[in-house]
Queue: 3 jobs
Job 1
Amino acid sequence: MYLLGRLILRAIKIHKKLQNVNDVKVITIIGARPQFIKASVVSRVFKQCCESVEEILVHTGQHYDENMSKVFFDELGISKPDYNLGIGGGTHGQNTGRMIEEIEGLLLLEKPDWVLVYGDTDSTLAGALAAVKLHIPVVHIEAGLRSFNRRMPEEVNRVLTDHIATLLFAPTELALKNLLKEGIERSKIHLVGDVMYDAALYFYKKAEQKSKILETLKLSSKEYVLATVHRQENTDDKHRLSSIINGLSQSSVPVILPLHPRTKKQLNLFGINIGTPIKVVEPVGYLDMIMLEKNARAIATDSGGVQKEAYFYQVPCVTLREETEWVELVEQGVNLLVGYDENAIAKSITASFSHRWMEGMYGDGEAAYKIVNEIQYTQL
Ligand code: UD1
Ligand code: UDP
């Protein structure tokens, strides 16, 4: 598959020489863990393919602990950010406001042709807003996802970003439909598949070779449940968070919980104790996470990325939310939405549901190539 990608790029290069394509300068704004993973595949293609494209990486600093940030740069081969704004740990308003101010300054200095943002975090919205107010066109990767729950900060971030973007890359058919329903012009939208699927295909072998996490944690394949919890609506509500922990505590096999710093803070604040069978570990790097996911009996999560990875590695997924943006997984019966109900969680992590693979649901593993190609050829 990657051979095909490289062939496409070679063809693009030759074509470009013939066409005499102009140089393009892209500023990519990233700041949170999943964005490092997504950017790793797109930045690699930028580097491989195009002498005429210059990518400048800006890390907002939204995630700053070593195991939430540096580990991904180290193990995924992402270049050191050209700028690190060091803005994290504040409220949504503080973070977003300070990021806009700093990013605006950088954009005035660097004068890029495009600003590229990923997903739905505060860094995404800040990058998009700073750019659009300077009339710099915005590229949005992972456009069109909707939970239809405006109480989620992510829903607000993604809706606003989609409506001010010039190039929108939708990962799924449903995302494309959502954008069209909201009146966004068809010509701006490209259905390319999901860059997280590209990442899973690219890094799986490396994870198998390098990760020692199963040995370190003394885990046997299919004899544990993997859980992640970090959504604001789960972590900031004592009742919901206790209920999730109580549900996971009823597992008959160990539950590995790589603990997001937000959740750690809230567990301490609420005085919620965790004991056997849950084993809390620090957040892990992406390669370790792949192995933990692949070998889990089931995954319980409120993460967007982890829901899809459960599908990629054919592991049943129990989603600790009332709704999901990845509706197709629920429709396929491979993802069960259980919310925070203690009994539903306890029951579903032990239930076995069969896995169905739907070819092409998240693209063909070439999303990054398609994205880079489109950015190069879109006439401004
Ligand atoms: C953010 C994104 C969310 C994404 C998640 C990925 C927004 C609104 N939310 O949520 O969409 O799914 O990242 O993980 O942008 N903290 C640390 N160290 C860190 C990072 C965070 O201690 O390296 C703590 C701080 O107390 C911080 C809190 O976690 O205030 C929340 O971090 P923040 O980046 O605001 O939101 P996330 O919950 O991580
Ligand atoms: N992830 C990781 N280590 C962890 C937890 C998650 O590498 O300890 C990876 C996970 O495999 C996925 C991404 O981080 O690729 C998902 O990020 P997160 O759950 O923080 O955010 P979301 O996808 O919900 O926005």
Note: The two ends are 31 Å apart (CA to CA).
Job 2
Amino acid sequence: MQGREQWGTRIGFILAAVGSAVGLGNIWRFSYVLGEGGGFAFLLAYILCIFLIGLPVLLAEITVGRRGQSDAIGSFEKIAPGKGWKLAGILGVLSGSLILTFYGVIAGWVFYYFFAYLTGTAGGVGEGEYTDFFLNFIGSSVGPVFWQILFMAIVIGVVYFGVKKGIEVANRLFMPLLAIIVVILAIYGLTMEGAGEALNFMFAPDFGQLGNMDVWGMAIGQAFFTLSLGMGAMITYASYLPKESKLPSAAGSVVALDTLFAIFAGLMIFPIVFTFGMDPGDGVGLLFMTLPEAFGQWGTGGTIFGVFFFFLVGIAALSSAISLLEVGVSWAMRRFDWSRQKATLTAGIIITIVGIPSALSQGAVGFLSDIPLPGGTFLDFVDVITDQYTLALGGMITALFVGWGWNKVEVLRETGLQDTTIGTLWIWFLRVVAPLGILYIVWNNFYNMFIATEESLSYFVLHVLQYFL
Ligand code: PFF
């Protein structure tokens, strides 16, 4: 048996963790939830959630991984054998792999857009026709599946080469590239006519929406998703850290860089949205319909912006998807005693195949479209289940484990916080604030989905049964 793989350097780990965190969530998801959540109020709620819940849980996950020196499930087993805490890891491996099934589909759309801007296809679409352009593409069958498979092949290729030679090398290249492109595009955005309105939208104090619990629900969901929490990714990445590296500053850097990136993404997107009189609350289609429409009206400048923009989003998605695949691969290598190569190919291919129904669920093919799935299409369904439930529960169990289930002195020694006020504060955040916050949100999501709508749980179950019987 060979020794366990490790990062080449501490910065390699930080870059990879930032790579995992910065993804579609910071650009596609962040911009539409910010738009729907009314701008500033959402931003405020989001930043509070990031620091009060996200950062403590991230540090908890990193601590579990580094101490356990094993995958998301194995780490819990090693630290607290036979105690049932590994449920967090099981949820993690399941959600990580499930998320990758549809993440690969959406990333495939992004790759297609990049290609379409590069070859001029997307630049030549007429005014008002970008909605059809998008819907025709995702509603077809060959296109979305082709781009999903292409994207997944690259992800599999990187993970195949291992922690140091594959994941670390890729992120060392990708992260600086992302930073440069997002800063340039954001600066450009700030020179546009709509910049003032965008800044106003994002930063002008308006506390009205803060009483709206849905805004908080979206904020905490976004905090978990964007920091890659609750799905074993950070546990897995931290398990490749050597014993001596400092954990709190690493967690702090990841949170700071991820948040900064999201804000820059907002500065790049919203000026365009306002300059061309689009609606920031357009929802999921913001990236694929609203922005391209604006690029189209802008002309050649918009096409060039489009090429860089979708390249940026594609790379961000790639580095996140790599971490999602690594969760399952790391587990399979230990569980079945497989080589990295065998585990990567097996997990990668299974996840790609399970993602195909999501790729086919939009529009014409409409996979499973006759069941009233919560969320809408099959893709939305997998998204909603993971985003709103399994991630949060996995994160909550991890917080409870580090807060209550593991000896406090040992935990603090492991993180390097020792007996400091910050250490004690952190433990209490994990014990009380994070679990209560998460529980509230899960309940709120459940209430909105099944109780406050006429589609009750029993109605849904009935339809599922009807479909299969
Ligand atoms: N954090 C990523 C994003 O913001 O797009 C998504 C993600 C990646 C979630 C990896 C979870 C994960 F394990």
Note: The chain has one domain: 10-468.
Job 3
Amino acid sequence: MPVATIGVFALQGDVREHLRVLTSLGARAIGVRRASELAACDAFVIPGGESTTMIKLARTFDLVDPLRERIAAGMPTFGTCAGMILLADRIEGGTSDQETIGGLDVTVRRNAFGRQVDSFEDDLDFHGIEGPVHAVFIRAPWVEEAGDGVEVLARVEHGPAVGRIVAVRQGPLMATSFHPEVGGGDRIHRLFIDLIRQS
Ligand code: GLN
């Protein structure tokens, strides 16, 4: 298969980190700010950042509807942290008018881990990956409830939030509560590239 072009939502968030990991894996990765750039992409990544700002900017730049259409048409898409919130069909703890792009049949709770544990790290058992995956959580969401078609890939292993769902997949859509683009390692991005190849 020719090298996939993977777009990274580039209006806000840790865009550069995703571009760096994807490029290091041999993908063609480009920052996307407009629909014309999205049209050139085979797959898409929505980074961590601030979901309320990200969705507002996506509206301003007329990216919400094109993204919804591409996701509905099966474009492989990976959301991390705020990106998971943007991919969720339903959110709890959002601002009163907070919309999402949607596609993933989950309810996501924003800033779910509470103030005491704003940021923490854990070693996860991640479905499809050999050995523990080090995960960095920063004011992260968790998946409160997942629809029947959603596969749970990882849960919190230690501490007060043990058992909470923090990684999911539904067909060509994948999302993590944590930041694989920050935590070091590239195994989760590799998994996403495998998923693009299968799609
Ligand atoms: N708390 C942020 C939000 O609700 C997400 C944090 C992150 O992406 N690191 O958008």
Note: The chain is about 25% helix and 30% strand.
